[in-house]
Amino acid sequence: QVQLVESGGGLVQPGGSLRLSCAASGFTFSSYVMSWYRQAPGKERELVAFISRTGSSASYVDSVKGRFIISRDNTKNTVYLQMNRLKFEDTAVYYCSVLRNVRTWGQGTQVTVSS
Length: 115
Known about the structure:
The protein has 115 residues and is mainly β. The chain is 0% helix and 51% strand. Strands 2, 4, 5, 6, 9, 10 and 11 form a 7-stranded mixed sheet that branches. The chain has a 4-stranded antiparallel sheet with strand order 1-3-8-7, with no helix packed on it. β4 and β5 form a beta hairpin. It starts with a strand and ends with a strand.
């Protein structure tokens, strides 16, 4: 079955960086757009970024443009989110997701930005 497993979250100071990874299995990874979402406490889940099937194009929510980079390695069935210049408001659980017949989510990885 489809599985998405995120890793790489943690505690980081403002201005720091983290790189999230999402290992996918159970489907033809290179055939699907991949997305990163996040959900902060008390807020709705929001789309952070998505990347095309080949990785040639990507899109970001305005709040992370210029700071986050989404990428993928179709040989490793993995999608990444490089997060730079992190801010307090980036604190959230980050989820990897794919939309096939239904949207599938990973278990999430916690990112906490705190001094």
